[in-house]
Amino acid sequence: MENNQELIENAELNMMSAVSHLEAELAKIRAGKANPIMLKGIYVEYYGNNTPLNQVASVSTPNAQTLSIQPWEKDMLDEIEKSIISSNLGLNPVNNGESLLINIPPLTEERRIELTKIAKSESESAKVSIRNTRKDINNKIKNLEISDDLKSNLEIDAQDLTDKYIKKVDEMFAVKEKDILTL
């Protein structure tokens, strides 16, 4: 029986992973407010290594519309600036010789709708991943040599997990959509 419980636990881990991935992807979608997470995927050439920005500089938000990047070594300013410009985030840092400042412009209505579609797409991908996990576990359950009642109970558990995580994805999307569309 423990092996059967392990199936359910592994399925839940996979579903939690899909939700975590969605959370990270939604965090990257800017809603017109400055947030250090916006720069999470940016890497900087640092002594021959591709290094995450947060390991060569501190990123803060002095106000809701500005990101401030303070490198730990001043000679990294130009390299960080190049990385941000080439990141396709549409951000233009201003180098004042000490730090970089990035003004986050308010989003246009068109851009808000576009970002909502991106968030919806990421949410749908998470749901597909969750449903695929359910499908995989159901296939494994069918091949188990246990009674039909036990199989049925395991399938119900898998469906309950699926419903729980799909609901979580829907809630996360609703929060992000509201965040994007709120002026």
Quick summary:
The protein has 183 residues and is of the alpha+beta class.
Describe the model.
The protein is α+β, with helices and mostly antiparallel strands and 183 residues long. The chain has two domains: 2-28 and 108-181, Topoisomerase I, Chain A, domain 4 (Orthogonal Bundle), CATH 1.10.132.20; 36-103, Gyrase A, domain 2 (2-Layer Sandwich), CATH 3.30.1360. The chain is built from four helices and six strands; from the N terminus they run αββββαββαα. The protein has helices spanning 2-28, 77-85, 109-143, 148-181; strands at residues 43-46, 49-52, 57-63, 66-71, 93-95, 100-103. The protein has a four-stranded antiparallel beta sheet with strand order 3-4-6-5, covered by helices on one side. It has a two-stranded antiparallel ribbon with strand order 1-2. The longest helix has 35 residues, at 109-143. It is elongated, with a radius of gyration of 22 Å. It starts with a helix and ends with a helix.
CATH architecture classification name of the largest domain: Orthogonal Bundle
Number of DSSP helices? 4
What is the tally of beta strands? 6
Residue-averaged pLDDT:
90
SSE run: HEEEEHEEHH
